[in-house]
Amino acid sequence: MARSWSELLGDEREVAEPEDERRRFLGRLRSSLGRTRNVIRLPLGRFDPRDDESWDALEEALISADVGMAVTEELVERLRKRRDVDDLEQALVEQIAALLGDPGTLAVNERPSVVLVVGVNGTGKTTTIGKLAHRLAEHGRSVLVAAADTFRAAADEQLEIWSQRAGADFVGATRGADPAAVAYDALEAAEGRGRDVVLVDTAGRLHTQTNLMDELRKIRRVIQRQDPAAPQEVLAVLDAHIGQNSVQQVRRFGEAVQLTGLAVTKMDGSARAGVVLSIEEELQVPTKLVGIGEGLDDLNFFDPARYLDALLGL
Q1: Burial, 188: exposed, middle or buried (Cβ in 10 Å; 0-12, 13-18, 19+)?
Q2: CA 21/CA 237 separation, integer angstroms
Q3: Considering only the top CATH level, what class is 113-302?
Q4: What is 31-100's CATH topology?
Q5: What is the percentage of the chain residues whose pLDDT exceeds 70?
Q6: How many Cβ atoms from other residues are within 10 Å of residue 114's Cβ?
Q7: What is the pTM of this model?
């Protein structure tokens, strides 16, 4: 059954998703995953379960789609054990669905809920925050955006523009200011203004930069001094084009700040969309959001059913 934004946000009252928007998003997702779909489907058309070369071709296709060696081997092993493997397409759908599981919800129902957003440079953190602010506003949440990226030139200006487009409050700081102090001020402002959700942007950093990873830990500690339950969400933003390199990124960010979910961006023709399976199976971090464009509406919740439909075209 297809999910909805209301389900993702844990709303008791369902807000209907327009049918034309649902169809448009699914169509764009199918188009975006076309290369990955072609890579995976090629060996399915001539698959013979009695032929070792067919199994090798399937394994090679999954690895080429960046599903990852460990997950590919597990999928193939599970399929080999099934007696109904003659229907390989359906069996593959069922096994991938089992790996994906339930992406759960976004924990944004306390006031204020804090969403800490992390990732490396160039993944699309700023645009993802702007789009998420817009989506939250559509579903009745008042949002405050905090620009805790105080190092990158013009970072706060860009985020402020996105905040204005989304109708969200904005808290910034001068360049070089303490990012943890910005997060602290933002949470105080949200409490004073009665805002529902605080979205905290952070400076892009490589997972190998120890000093900057320590800074993330500090931001989290400062937030928790004001609210021990916060941040309610810690989302890592990943570029779908990066592929298997994302697995190591997620692992390191998770060690630093205990990730609750992923936002996968740039699902626009990448042949590496299978990396979602690797991360979910190896690291047990669910994908919650998917971005496939630059517009305010070009962020959607991750729906395993839609993803499988777009990935395999079955």
Answers
A1: middle
A2: 23
A3: alpha beta
A4: Four Helix Bundle (Hemerythrin (Met), subunit A) (1.20.120)
A5: 90
A6: 28
A7: 0.87
